[in-house]
Amino acid sequence: MRKISKRRIAFIAVTVIASVAGGYFFGDAIRAAEKPNEYIAVVFSILAASLFAVVSIVGDPGMLPSGSTSAAWVNARDLQKQLHRFNGLFFLYLITLGLLVVSEVIESSKWEKWYWVTDVYAGLAIGGFLLSFALPFDFMALQRRRLEQEIEMRSRGRTGQ
According to the model, what pLDDT value does residue 148 have? Predict the structure, then answer.
C-alpha cells in the first residue's frame, strides 16, 4: 500500500478550505459578473482536454515497460491507481463546466432560490484549479518511474540477470 505524504494531505486540506471559503465569499461576485465565467469556461475546457489527452497516452497498454507478466501486472495496477486520480480530476472539471451552464441558466431566469448553485460552482472551480497545480508533479513522477523501470529492464538485459 502506498503511503500518502503529509504534504499531499496538507495540500488537499488547504484546497478544500480554499474551495469552501471561495465558494462562500466569491459565489455572488462570480454570479454577478460575466467575465469570470467566460475565463473559467475556457480554462476548464483546456484543462479537461489536456488531461484527457494525457490520460489517453499514459493509459495505453503499449506504454507499459517490457518484461515479465507479473512485472507488467504490478505496473498496470500502480498505473490504474494514478489514472483513477486523474479521472477524478477530469470529472471534477466536467462537473464544474456543467454547473457553470446551470448557474448561467439560473441567473438568466432569475431563480433566486437557486443562486446557491453558483456558490457550489465557484467552490468547485477554485478547488479544481488548485488541484491542477499538482498535475505536472504527478506526470513527472509517473514519467520518472517509467524511465527508471525501462533503464532497469535494459540493464538486466545487458548484464544477463
Answer: 81
Structural domain for 88, as ranges: 6-159
Question: Structural domain tally of the chain?
Answer: 1
Given this model, what pLDDT does residue 160 score? 47
Residues 6+ apart with CB under 8 A from 79: 58, 59, 64, 142
pTM of the entire predicted model: 0.80
Does some domain include residue 1? no
Is there a domain that residue 29 lies in? Answer: yes
Is 60 inside a domain boundary? yes
Q: Give the Å distances, CA to CA, from 27 to 31, 45, 134.
A: 6, 20, 24
Q: Which residues contact 118 (CB under 8 A, 6 or more apart)?
A: 27, 28, 30, 31, 103, 106, 107
| Among 101, 93, 95, residue whose Cα is nearest residue 48 | 93
Q: Is residue 94 situated within a structural domain?
A: yes
